[in-house]
TrEMBL record:
GO MF term set: alpha-L-fucosidase activity
Protein name stated in the entry: alpha-L-fucosidase
Residue ranges crossing the lipid bilayer per the database entry: none
Gene3D superfamilies named among the record's database cross-references: Galactose-binding domain-like, Glycosidases
Protein's UniProt keywords contain Hydrolase: yes
Chain ranges of the Glycoside hydrolase family 29 N-terminal domain: 100-279
EC number(s) from the headed UniProt entry: 3.2.1.51
Any one GO biological process: glycoside catabolic process
Protein biosynthesis listed as a keyword: no
Swiss-Prot/TrEMBL keywords: Glycosidase, Hydrolase, Signal
Membership in a protein family: Belongs to the glycosyl hydrolase 29 family.
Length: 377
């Protein structure tokens, strides 16, 4: 029989060095370690833990078989026969600032007033909004400014739980591509002042900044189809491709926003539904079977002493990020050992960090020990 042991070695930065005052061995519990700033806001944390969201590009373009509208299409073309918006739970919205229809577009003050008026209507008449998605889309030849600071302030004032997306945050940043792929290491810390909306530094957006002062996690947008809108002639990506995107976005500390455009009936087409179902089933199959579920987990160090339950190594087997292992302070290297007690063959390891206290893990090193007791080769 082969026994597999997983050895996990953490390499961390910014470990809090301050010790709480207390006498070792006293009854007072050891408090959690100091957070490493920046940390997520309440809204950002709930958003980031949700992992995935759907994006629905649906409008006149759906009915004119186009990706870009002119702003002059007759609103009557928008005539879905079977749309039912009832089941939609958790609402976000994208109000494109590039309004090709609006006559005052091009006049900075008048257009910003118009835009804020529309935004106010959207944020006060349709219930709770969880995300406002903004890009810097701007018409060619129009010398006009978008007053982003005023937009952001108004959005935060009108909606308590909202997370604002743009190239530069303030709450979540564009990852920098439309393929749904984040940098191999993707930091939520970021300096908002380093980028402006419409002018990102692709590598910086993809990877974030280990020394960043603002918590601005990346959001990965990608369409299940070649374009953002539904076209009868196009087909969705397959479930294997979506799984690969999932690993490269959610698996890299980001939220995956998957565009699934309704068809001209106002429904998700059958082919897309099938792919989504398969994608869900694949993930269930992969993640429902945890080979480490009954592992004996030990670590070379435990915050508050080896017997401390609050930071015990076995905490890492629980789902929640509020249950975690922490090492003693002031140490530079440590290891964790998972004894699976039996042979297992696997190709996915899920490692998470309690990001409510900031992001500090630079990388993990995983070693696997094969201990063959038989003489099989
Ligand atoms: C982000 O800001 C911090 C603090 O000012 C600074 O140390 C770091 O170098 C900045 N990152 C970049 C890429 O400029
Ligand atoms: C899924 O799509 C990708 C990209 O088009 C392709 O390479 C792959 O073979 C497809 N996989 C399956 C199982 O159809
Ligand atoms: C839209 O998708 C639904 C399935 O959800 C299908 O019944 C309907 O025919 C589709 N409409 C078009 C125009 O393809
Ligand atoms: C863990 O133990 C439970 C209860 O004994 C058992 O049902 C499950 O199959 C075990 N899981 C693994 C991966 O060994």
């Amino acid at each position: 029989m082969a026994t597999i042991l997983l050895l996990l070695l953490g390499l961390l930065v910014g470990l809090p060095l301050l010790r709480a005052h207390g006498v070792t061995g006293s009854a007072a519990p050891t408090p959690p370690p100091l957070p490493v700033l920046p940390v997520p806001s309440y809204a950002q944390l709930q958003w980031q833990l949700s992992e995935m969201a759907l994006f629905l590009h649906f409008g006149p373009n759906t009915f004119t078989d186009s990706e870009w509208g002119s702003g002059r299409t007759d609103p009557a073309v928008f005539a879905p026969s079977a749309l039912d918006a009832g089941p939609i739970i958790g609402l976000g919205l994208y109000l494109s600032p590039w309004d090709r229809h609006e006559p005052v577009y091009g006049d900075t003050v008048a257009y910003n007033e118009h835009y804020l008026g529309q935004m106010t209507e959207l944020l006060t008449r349709y219930g709770d909004v969880e995300e406002v998605w903004l890009d810097g889309a701007k018409g060619e030849g129009k010398d006009m400014d978008y007053m982003f600071d005023a937009w952001f302030a108004l959005i935060h004032q009108l909606q308590q739980r909202v997370v604002i997306f743009s190239d530069a945050g303030p709450d979540t940043r564009w990852v920098g591509d439309e393929a749904g792929v984040a940098g191999y290491t993707c930091w939520s810390p970021f300096n908002k002042s380093t980028v402006t909306i419409g002018h990102i530094i692709p590598e910086y957006s993809r990877c974030g900044d280990p020394f960043g002062q603002d918590w601005v996690p990346a959001e990965c947008d990608v369409s299940i189809r070649p374009g953002w809108f539904w076209h009868a002639s196009e087909k969705p990506k397959n479930a294997t491709t979506l799984l690969d995107i999932y690993y490269k976005s959610v698996g890299r500390n980001c939220l995956l926003i998957l565009n699934v455009p309704p068809n001209s009936s106002g429904l998700i087409s059958t082919e897309d539904m099938q792919v989504l179902q398969e994608f869900t089933e694949i993930r269930q199959t992969i993640f429902s079977q945890n080979f480490a579920a009954n592992a004996t987990v030990t670590a070379s160090t435990v915050r508050g002493g080896l017997g401390n339950q609050q930071f015990a190594p076995s905490n890492v087997l629980q789902e929640s990020i509020y249950s975690y292992w922490a090492p003693e302070e002031g140490q530079s290297s440590w290891e964790m050992l998972f004894d699976l007690g039996q042979s297992a063959s696997f190709n996915v390891i899920q490692l998470q960090e309690p990001i409510q206290m900031g992001q500090r893990v630079i990388k993990f090193r995983v070693e696997i020990w094969w201990m063959n007791s038989g003489n099989n080769c």
